Amino acid sequence: MDKKVYIWADASQDIGYGHFTRSLALADMLKADFDCTFFTQYPTNYQKKEVLKVCKLIELPNTDEKFNLFLKVLRGDEIVVLDNYFFSSDYQNEIRKCGCKLVCIGSNDKHYYADVVINYILSSHDFSAEPYTCFCTGIEWAILRKPFWISSPVRDFRPTVERIVICFGGTDQFLLTEKVVRFLRSCFNKLEIHVVSTDILGEIRISSLANEGVELHINASAQHVHDLFEYCDLAILSASTVVLEALACRIPVLVGYYVANQERLYEYLERELPGIGLGNLLDVSLGMRVIDVLKGWSCKKSQFILSGLQDSKAKYLELFKTL
User: Fold this and answer.
1) Most buried residue, 32, 67, 89, 143, by most Cβ within 10 Å?
2) Residue 53 burial (CB < 10 Å; 0-12/13-18/19+)?
3) Other C-beta atoms within 10 Å of 224: how many?
């Protein structure tokens, strides 16, 4: 009988969809060899559909009751994966006391009792953890969705930008999409503009963008996003896993950040791929910075090849089989 893997990650307008998307991608990597169940609080219909394409779903309430409910499900022989900021050190300890193996996809904001900690950007020296904790750090541990595992390394780079795709997350609560679209339309009226997001944008924003001539891709599948990256000439993105997926497709990117938890990935990308950074996307000069880049556009193939980004499925299967 396959070993059970319980994965808990959430999505909301406040925290975005990054945790949910990458953890579901991990479940997709593991599902052929493990009995995976995905836990999430108060999922939307879109989330439910996405999870059920991959594995079983157990819904949790969006109250503190969720913590005890999850513990009650554990029998002690499971591998538990946690991916969110609210899982405290004490809660990690509670899970390990049940006898479970614990994997945390996390930042260095707490002490870890987990058996494994995963982080693409930081090193083990940046963390506080128990002596037994194993660290999987570095961009080679990036968790990408299935179409991006096998993305072609060959791409034709065009000298001009005619088709742009924009993605500032599944919620874009700061209306960055509208801001960039407005500036692009004011200077480059013939641009073909695509926007990737979720239905959390709401009907009013979706209709308004459509009226601007934007092609919207709402609740798009991973394959659809992959094909869009292959089709477009440039992606303007926030610093989250979607940037790594774009780079797996070798599409030229411009990237910025708008919340603190995106800054480390942004700094890493700006260091590894100089010239792609837009800085803080909330800065009032964002639109003009995008325009300036496009007016002086030049694209070199080597500028968008991120060393170490690779198919990590085999690495994760090997890791989980040792737990």
Assistant:
1) 143
2) exposed
3) 13
Are the C-beta atoms of residues 44 and 201 closer than 8 Å to each other? no
The Cα 210–Cα 264 span in angstroms is: 33
Q: How many whole angstroms separate alpha carbon 23 and alpha carbon 28?
A: 9
Which of 57, 30, 118, 114 lies closest to 80 in space, CA to CA?
114
List, in order, residues 6 or more apart from 274 with CB less than 8 Å away: none
Residue 307 has pLDDT above 80, yes or no: no
pLDDT surpasses 60 at 192 = yes
pLDDT of residue 151: 61
pLDDT tens by residue, 70-112: 999 999 999 999 998 889 999 999 999 999 999 999 888 999 9
pTM of the model: 0.90
Q: Are strands 253-257 and 35-41 parallel, antiparallel or unpaired?
A: unpaired
Residue type for position 262: Q
Query: Hey, what are 255's tokens?
Result: 């990237």
- Token pair of 116 as six digits: 């494994």
Find out whether 58 and 39 touch, Cβ atoms under 8 Å: yes
Contact 177, 200 (CB under 8 A): no
Give the domains, in start order, of the chain with CATH numbers: 4-137 (3.40.50.11190), 148-304 (3.40.50.2000)
Q: How many CB atoms lie within 10 A of CB 62?
A: 13
pLDDT at 237 over 80: yes
Phi first, then psi: what are they for 158, rounded to 5°? -90, 150
